Amino acid sequence: MTSVPTDLALRPVALVGAGTLGRRIALMMALRGGEVRITDPSAEQRAAAVAYVVQQLPGLVERTPDAVAGRVTAADDITSAVGDAWLVVEAVPERLELKREVFGELDRVAPADAILASNSSSYPTSRFADAVTRPHLLVNTHFYMPPDRNAVEVMSCGLTDPKVVNLLLAVLPSYGLVPFEVRRESTGFIYNRVWAAIKRESLAVVAEGVSTPEEVDELFRMNLGADRGPFQRMDAVGLDVVLDIEEHYAAEREGLPEGPRRLLREMIAEGRLGVKSGRGFYDGYDT
Hints:
The chain is an alpha/beta fold. 43% of the residues lie in helices and 15% in strands. The chain starts with 12 loop residues before the first strand and ends in an 18-residue tail after the last helix. It has an eight-stranded mixed beta sheet with strand order 3-2-1-4-5-6-7-8. The protein folds into two domains: 8-182, Rossmann fold, CATH 3.40.50.720; 193-277, N-(1-d-carboxylethyl)-l-norvaline Dehydrogenase, domain 2, CATH 1.10.1040.
């Protein structure tokens, strides 16, 4: 029988990975007055993550009902980070073998009842469930961009004990988060899967000469009241990243059209990566 953590208030939350999302997740986990530990191979990243939380936390506490400021610390290694943690969230780069390695180590050093969660946006935890001896405690917690977008999608690895999913769905709102259960394994989870279809069809109408990026974006803004259209958003993410995501979907699902990926490859070959290269579907970005 699975034993899930019950003494949450007395135990820390650990973040493995101190990048953009890791530090933002740590910020949210510091809203219940407890301890949050962040670890990363880079001392510079660890220090930057702690500084970000320390700077942002007071204002976020003021804006969040019933919040209590916690404390955040940096740990040099995974073993000292996870200590007696009740929840460990992995936020390392999107490389499957790296995630397998991290979860194998977490399985060895984390407390026996610790929930092991991946923030992966591409890989369901079923892809590395064989790297752990306790897959009943392994789960996806897919965060977006807190504290600006506080949705969290919670998805089983296929062997996750329902008590683990139910605990996260119940407790995450107390951290200022809004959880959504992904009821079956889904590459892209919920929102990203829907958004991928929008991106893909937008790319298709441009690749086929039906419209232009500017016109698609304007229609999108007018009809949906959005601040930016699909092509502006893709430029912001980076067209190389968008292509990687599309290639991943194509490998998972037969029959996806080639035209959108061909257009992205042509853009990338011309050095048009979006905002980070100064030009993408739009020109003139500051770099």
